[in-house]
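Subject: Protein entry, chain in single-letter code together with its fold tokens

Area: Proteins and the way their chains fold up in space.

Attached in line: The record itself begins immediately under this heading.
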Amino acid sequence: MVLCVQGPRPLRPEERIGQQSLRARSLKLPESTMQPLPAGVFLEEVVDETSAQPESDQPKVLDPEEDLLCIAKTFSYLRESGWYWGSITASEARQHLQKMPEGTFLVRDSTHPSYLFTLSVKTTRGPTNVRIEYTDSSFRLDSNCLSRPRILAFPDVVSLVQHYVASCASDTRSDSPDPIPVPPLPAPKEDAASTPVLPVPMTTAVHLKLVQPFVRRSSARSLQHLCRLVINRLVADVDCLPLPRRMANYLRQYPFQL
């Protein structure tokens, strides 16, 4: 038995024309939708090649947190040292160092708003002061522009002072690659008659020699600290010593010899 199903009947002419018109109408798109998008819809990312600079020429980005940690560490070292005198004036530092031997020094707060610390030293001509400059998380002695590239920078003030103490102890003043900068002497003033100013002789220069710190009486160093100084002078690396952890941590808190 075969089941026969009636197939599609042929379309009449009027139905065939109508179906073709519907197919053409469904495929034909409005002309407005084929127009390109306006230029302002998508903004092209333009790279300004003229403003692009090499990484080395770009200014260094300052990190306030790094500066804060560096200054806080320096203050911690100075308080442990015993020769940090805090906020005394230049005249008070002169009075303390006036009767001390040559090479005696102390560190105090600078009275200049652009500096943090000042190094006061007893020289052959009396006490003098050298400001300590802080920039780029480093400390260096203040000097003129010509000798500044030769002045070494240090991560803290105690390292700076210890370096120059060792430099003076080795008696390398004549050929030292980083001499201690001398504070400039005040220039002589001309009188009312416009008398020509004579050149200042080179003998007026004062050489700074750092020998020993002037310890403050109110912050006398303890016996533990004095023993720590002796260990630091005799041992290059305290981590090599078979010490308890607490004692090793105490030595690391002040890794200096002054």
